[in-house]
Every structure is written in structure tokens, then in C-alpha cells.
Fold these 4 entries.
Entry 1:
Amino acid sequence: MAMQREAPEFKRCCFCIPLRRGLIAWGYVKLILDLLVLAYLSLMFFWLAHYGLRFVSVYMLTYIFIAVCSFLDTAFSIVFIVAGHKKSIKLLKVSYVYNIVWLGFLVLGNSFTLYTDLKFLYKMWSYMKDHKYIVLEILASSALATSTVFIQIYVILLIRSEISKLQNQTLEMQFTNHVAAEPLCTLRNESDCTEKKLHGEEKGKIDI
């Protein structure tokens, strides 16, 4: 019999902050970073346009691709913040799927960057006298890429935990409302309740 392992669920963000507030704070931090990236890209577009597009066409295409990704990430960051404030399970599920897709892009992008760095290092190794700095630079970029992937996985697990918590709260509220909606007896007057009970028993005997 195969063992089924479920993904871990977290009650708090970073083990100290309430889960929903931590996710909202992360959404605002990510939104600020996206806006800074867009501001930087705007300056780069201005610089590239000023010095001509023929010479820097490859760089222009690269910056356009990064700008599109930044716009999408900004839009979904806003959706994520709204979902956290409104406790919307539907919007959180949208953010959950988007973060999984974004994780895939991160893995592919970081793998491609690491591959190009190693390829450059292999070609230039014989021409370099001091290899220590270039090796440290590649190790630092690899550590940064790995940390971004693990942070993204952690955020995905936090979003999943928040969705699970909200779904459980919704089920508990529905169960409570269902039980409360079917009272056995509403006691307004003790004599009235007794008379109704006796009248019901007599009616049941007559029906039999």
C-alpha cells in the first residue's frame, strides 16, 4: 500500500507573524519591488531610445520581455493583496496557480543563467589569471538563484495553508448555521409550549 504524503501546512508566516498578515505584507513588498523594476526599465527604455535602436536591438527585446513579466507580476501582486484583505478563496486560488507557474519560470530562468555563466567560465578559464573572484561570483549568483526558488516554494505553501484555513472556517460556519437553522423548540411561553406538545401527541394518537 503506497503512502500518501501531504504538503505541510503553516499556522504562521516566518514562525512568528499571523499567516494572513504575513502574506499581505509579502504582497506589498513584492509590489514595491515590481514598481522599482518598472521604474528602472523605464529609464533603460529612455536611454536605449535616445542612443538608437539598431545598435541595442537585442537589449531592447530583452528589456521588453522583462517589462512584460514585471507588468504581469505587478497585476497579480495587486490581486494577491486584494485576496488577502477580503479573504477571498477564489482570488487566493488564482494567486496560488500563478505562483506555481512563476516558480516554473524561476527554475527555467535560473537554470539558463547558471548554464550561461558556467559556459562563459569554461571559455575564459585559460585567459584568466585570478580565478578566485569569478568562482565566488558564480557561487554567489547560484546561491541567490537557489534562495529565490526556495522562497517561492515557501510562499506557495503559505498560500495553500491560508486557502485550507479559510475553507475549514467556511465549512464550520455552514455547519453551525445548518444546526442553528433547525431548532427543535422555540420556548416563548412555557404553557404554550406544553399545550402545543400535548396537542401534537393527541393528534398523533388520532392519526394512528
Note: The first strand starts at residue 12 and ends at 13.
Entry 2:
Amino acid sequence: MSFLPPRPEEGDVLPASKTCLRKCWVGKFSEVKECSDFFLEGTTPSLPGILVGGTVKDPDRYKPICQKYKNSYRFATLYDTTNKIPVFSAYTFTGPFKGERPDTWMIEPQLNMINNNINDNSEMILDEGEDPYPNQAGNNDYRGNMEEKKLSRGHLFPCSHAHDQGTEDSTFTLTNIVPQKDTFNSGSWNKMECKVRNTLKDNCKDANNNIKAYVVTGAVPSTNNTLNNRVNIPDLLWTAYCCYNNKKKTWIAKAHWGENKEDVKEKNKKQNTLPSETLAKLYEKLSEHYPGVQVFPDKCSVDIPKTLRLVGGDVLMDEDVHDHCVYDDDCVCSSVGIKGHYLPVV
């Protein structure tokens, strides 16, 4: 007599299966079901020349990683071993969590194979700061001229979107990091991440009224701009989400992007705001680099009618251009004086 394991609750981290006991970078994300679940309907983005129909076009260069930490899958990353930055990271948002940010960084041991010998450690490990890694960025790569170039470590899967401490810790793997202009990272990009978090929390609920959204965040590499002559400094960062809204009984999707350059403060604002755009606009922008790009299945591509933009009497949080909050690393909004008026802390 056999017993089935209990059905996971919404927001549970998926335990690692036997499929990935030894190797957590795979030929296709679909090879590991728990990994493909980070994509809506198991459908990976289509980036012509890189990833099409779930198949990597240059498997020697691009590595699909099922990011595993403490024996559980946390998110998925397509990693560029030439530029030593992620192409994208994909994850499900199932609600916010306020934890503690770790002060250490991790790497993916499977990218350090020598003569095709698989490392027995099957999940991300602490970077011990040894010699430069041949196929990925290490902690030492993010030292040196970081301050001179005014750069910081930018998360693709932001730790503020994690739903528990283990997942938050897992975002501190360098396979989820790109060199990002410091004022951009802490300014308009951080503000966008926090506004999107609030949007997903309030508007993305499935038929069981559980919070769930699919998010993909990526980086477009530069031609020849590098950190320490090893790590590509991307020209553009982009992100998109798609989720079901059980009140309106429809799928909603939005996108944001920004050039990886220093924020220039807008008049009367202490933090710039990245505009909220449709998926169609994002595809138009990314087609400059990946002609024919598609991030989500077609059900997400329908623009949101104006009647659906009002949720609880307000516009979607990430569309609110009048939000003058200054957000910290934990997405806490501080009161900001604008011409003598003060906004409440939320």
C-alpha cells in the first residue's frame, strides 16, 4: 500500500526531486517539472537566437539553471556563461515576506565542471573567493572598480519579492545578479519593484483566492562594457508579470524596463518612476535585440481595458505616477513632503 505525498499549499517551496539530485542546470527547464512550474503553463520565454520552444540554441554558452537551495527549488535562471550574467530569472510571486538580508553570496557549482565531471553538490553554495571561475561571475569579480564605475549588484529576482527566508537567501546567488548602476538600482528600479510587489499582492489572486503571479526579469547585455574585463555590464533591464485576477476573472499583465545608467532626478521627486507598459510595448522594445520575442503565452498579451485598471477605487500600484514614496530595501515607504503636503507611511 502506498501513500501520495500531501498536495502543496499555495506559496510552498517545491522540494527537489530525484531528477535533479546531481545536476541542477539542465538541457531544458521542462526536464524538471518543479522548475517548469515557475513559468506560466510551463511555457518559457521565446528569445530568438537564445531560447526557442524551450530549447537553448547554444547549449555550450547558455545554461538553464533550476535554482535549488536547502533541497528546494526556488526559481529558474537562464545563464550566459560568456557574459557571466543571467539572461533572465523567472519566479512565482505568492506574497511578500519581511526577512533578513544575508551578507554572503553564492555560486552555482555545476557551472564549474572540469572535463565534464559533475560536482557532487547539487545546489548553490557559498562563494569562497577562490580564483576566477571560468563560466560564471564570482565575488571577486564584483570588487575592484565597482565604486569607480558607480555600480552595485542588481538582483533579477529581487529579494523583496521572496515569500520566505530560504527563498530570500537564494536570490543572493551571483547567477541572479548583474552589474547595475547604483543610483538606478536603489532609485527608479527599486521603486518599480516595490510598486509591482504591491500590485501583485492586491490584484493577483487565483480561483482559490491565493496570491500568485508569474514574473520574468531579464538583462540585455552591452556590446563591450565590462566589469573587471570579465562581467558584462548590461545596457537594459526589463521585467514583466502576468497573473489571474479572480475579481475581474481575467488575466492581467504589465511590463517595465529601464536603461542601465545613473538616475537623473526628476523635478519635485526624490525617486524616479519607471512607466508601466503593455507586453506589446515590451516586445517592441526587446525586438531591437531579439526579433520575435515573447515572454508569456498569448493569454497575457491582451491589453488591460481601462475599466479593469480601477481596483478598489485606485489605479494599479505600478501605474500610479503620483506615488511620491521613497522605498527602502524592504519596500517600506517613507513620508515625503511635496510642496508642504505629506503622504502617509504605508
Note: Confidence is low (pLDDT under 50) at residues 1-23, 114-121, 310-314, 337-346.
Entry 3:
Amino acid sequence: MTESIYPFTEDFDVTPSVQADFDKNGYIIVRSLLDSEEVKLLKDALESDEGIIRYAFGRDDGEGGRSRMVLWNQPGNDITGVMARCEKVAGTMEKLLGGEVYHYHTKLMMKDARTGGAFVWHQDYGYWYENGCIFPDMGTVFIALDQATQENGCLKVIPGSTGLVELITCALETRWGLMWNVLQRSRSFSPWCMLSWSRVTRCFSTVTCSTAASRTTATSGAGPSWWRTTGPPTTRS
């Protein structure tokens, strides 16, 4: 799929065509949104943070694999907070969602080489609704910190699945059978799409997604999630 993919330049903006792709497919890919130096600083900070190890928790995928993650709600003054609040991240999401946004949480997902488990099919809003977010005016920026390939479990999406209300309302752990039936039916209108990318690529998304288990190298990804609001202005760097 060649649509929804854009290179980042100094004059990058959410043009009508960018917005149309986002509204149609539920995501856009922006290549080189962060440069290699910025990604290295971000990855070095995360790998040296003792809190990442202390608060990380694992999740079994039901097929013998296990992935780890850690999340936080308050964007701090370190590089992860600056990244979440910067104009090219938060500002772009504001334009895509059509209004003021606030930081909901940032999550770091980690898969060990060959043993890192899959993240099964889900829509993030299915969880967010349970946490009090009653409107689906939300989105996530996925940042690949390592090379993401099909072999090590890159992101898999269903373009256009934002409108699958049945997925939004079902709880993943208790109604997986229902979700899988809906996912299979979704193939009749939209093929599942594998998103392989380098470390400097970013995905702005509201779409249904999953990742496979890692069969080769380790991989990790992080990203802030945003909720559109009419409340006080959000401070951005």
C-alpha cells in the first residue's frame, strides 16, 4: 500500500490529502519524523532508565511467547516527555484529530529476540473506554526504536477498521471469539497490511492492529497516545 506514506520534511503539514488518507485508512506513516540522532538519544535514555526495568511487566501471548511493556501517564521533562510534546508529534496529532489534545499515556513495548511474544489483534480504544474515555477521539503515535520487519514482529494493521464498532465495544480477553469473527469478515473490504520500517519511521494511528512474535532479532517500540479535548491548552515544546 503506497497511500498513507509520507516523507517528513521541514515544511511537512497535514494537507487535505494527508487528512483524507488518515480518515480513510485510520493511519498515516511519516518517514524520518525523528532523525537518527534523536532516535539514538531516545533509545539510550530508555535503556539506561532503571524505572523501565523496575516497572516493566510481561504478558503471555497464549502461544508460548511473552512480551514486556511499561507505561506512564505523565510526560516528564526528559527526552521521552519532550518527544511526546514536540510540535511534529503532538501538533501533527492535533491536526489529524481536529482539535486540542492531551497526553493520555506513553507505552514502551519490548520483544526479546526469538522469545518475544505477539500482541494479539486489538483496538486501543477498547481498553481506553474501560478507563473512562467515552468518546473514541483518540490516537497513537507508534515509534519504532529498532528495525521492524515481518520476521521480528512488525506492526500489522487493517486499513479502514476504525469504523468497526463491534471491535471497539468488545473486551479482548472475554470476547476474543467475537473479535476474530469480525476480523475475518473485515478481509472482505480491506486486506491486512504489514508495516515494515526503519527506526526513524513513525505511524500516527487509530486503526485495529497487532504484532507477531519475534522469530529473529529483538525489537522495541514506543509511542504516546492522545485524546482530543476542549479543556485547557496543552503545553508543547
Note: Confidence is low (pLDDT under 50) at residues 166-178, 197-201, 229-237.
Entry 4:
Amino acid sequence: MNRMEVKSQTALFLLLLCWVVAILSYPTGAPVGQCVMMTPNHSNATLSNMSSPYSVTVNASTYVLGGIIKVYINSSVPYRGILLEARDVNTSAIVGTWKDLSTNTKTLNCGLGTNNAVTHCNNTDKSGLVYTWVAPAKNGPNKVVFMATVVKIRVEYWIELKSSELTLATTGAAFGLKSSAFVTLSLLSLGLVHFL
């Protein structure tokens, strides 16, 4: 073999190796390093400039500390990859945890958190999955939004897809007891004043 043939074969091998690596990019989920920016690091992939066929929806407009919220990726188009997080609207901090995931997804430990993000664990088509978020038990933010990166195929994806914002609800029982006591005392004092 002459030098030219060796160089050609080496170049072909490197090209083939790059192609294999590109095909296999993150088939088992987003790496923890992507938690903040939520951008896939797939080679030769670019953010889609087309309107997203996916939307992020939730089953509530408010949440309570320690409560459960169901999150959905709505579309008639299946997706292969996902990175899903709940974020504090004011600080962008990742909040809460995830549980009861399908066999096609898994949790990530982003930053100092545990099970605080969801990603895919294979590159098979996904649709109709329900993601279960558990709100923080204490010190929950006033407003939470769910953010997703959805990968249709390795080279076509959308980032920062957002749900509607959820507001932290005041605890109804505690608020109700205080209000009832105030109203009862007010009515009693009015009654007593009236009888005097």
C-alpha cells in the first residue's frame, strides 16, 4: 500500500467512526451536564427552526407543598428523547422530584438535587407518557413552570418548551380555620354588642 491509499483509508475510517458516534449520541439519556442549558450535544444537530409539534401541559394551575402534578408532552408525533424539569419561575432553580416513570424514562440528579429531572433511557419512539412530579415538601417557590427539551430524531429537537405557570396555593385547611374563627368571633362580638 502506498501512502496515498493509507491516508484515504484512514480518512474513511475516521469518517465512519464519526458517523457511528453521531448515530449513537446519548441513546440512553441526557447527561447531567445538560441540566442547566437543556441543549442536546448531538453532533451535526441543530435546533429546529420549525414550530414545535410538542407542547407541555399539566393537570393543575396551582400546586401544594408535597403535592403531585401530572405533566404531559402532547403531540401526535412520537419523540425519542426528552429532558424535563420543573423550574422556579423567578430563579430558574430546578425544584421538586419525579416518580413513577415509564420504563422508557429515568431520573437524573441535577446539581445537588436527587431525581429532579427526567430523561429518556433508550431511543425508541415515545408518546402518551405521563410524568409525575412531586412538589417540594417545604420552601416551594411561588411559581413553577415545567420546561422540556424534546428530541424527535437525533438531528431535530426543540428546547425550552414551557407549560403554563403553576402558583403555590396557600394551604386551604389552615387558611379556612383562621377565616372561620375570625368570622365566628366577629359575629359573636356583633351579637354581643347588639344585645348590650
Note: The radius of gyration is 25 Å.
